[in-house]
Predict the 3D structure of the following.
Amino acid sequence: MTIDGWFIAGMIVGLLSTIICVGAAVLKKKPNDVTLLAVAAVELFVIVYLVASIVRVASGEHIVGQTWEFWSYLATAACLPIAGFYWALMERSYWSNYVLGAVGVTVFVMMARMAQIWYGSGALAYGLPQGIGS
Amino acid sequence: MKNTRLSSADHHATAGEADAVAPQGRTSGPGRLLITVYGIFALAATARAAFQIATQFNEAPVAYLLSAFAAVVYIVATVSLARRGQRWARIAAIAICVELLGVLVVGSLSLFDAAAFPKATVWSIYGQGYGFVPLILPILGLWWLYKHRTTAP
């Protein structure tokens, strides 16, 4: 897969968010401003990536893989922090921070898959032949 | 008993000894994390099955139908784990047993009879593509349900 700036940014934001949330959970802290902001940062990043992707496609860039798959991944990634936020805050115990921590790493994995679809390379986890759908 | 505040309206039956710091119910504390991970797998398996069936169903219909079946099992497990009550616990136990059986059977078949499974599913080689989490998850799930089993009233 091609590694671009978006993927690297997503990796940093996602993994950092997970590290902060899991760290807080290990310290047995309940969800607080720090962990909630860490998850909010992931949401903000996904929204920026969503807007930027629309601009890129509108200005003539071509998604090599299945376009509907790319957009459904992006839409799902945008919902994840919100879902995690709700699910975690329905019960404020330190376990909720583990739940919040799951958001960042999941978005990171989805970023990797989205990079594969965008550039049409790899798709290793799916065992697809190269360039399928191109 | 210290839990004099536990009213009959409290349907959180297993939380008898719980305090605010460490919730003990089936859907509380670690249970929420378990449900989260199941939810992520339900999502991943559904996405994978939808993509496989939509784009290349003819290449390996059996493997892709199996992917769809796995997705359904994960969805049922997620929902039933998240619901309170003994009936949902039983449904969760059945779904997770099916999941464990699926990962063991499909994992073994993909290992010893690769020709029968030319295309990967979530359960291929015991979930190797997902860091073997599909193999560990049902064991954790069954242990969690066993730990929070309720005796018949």
Remarks:
- Chain B has one domain: 37-147.
- Chain B has four helices and no strands.
- Confidence is low (pLDDT under 50) at residues 1-23 of chain B.
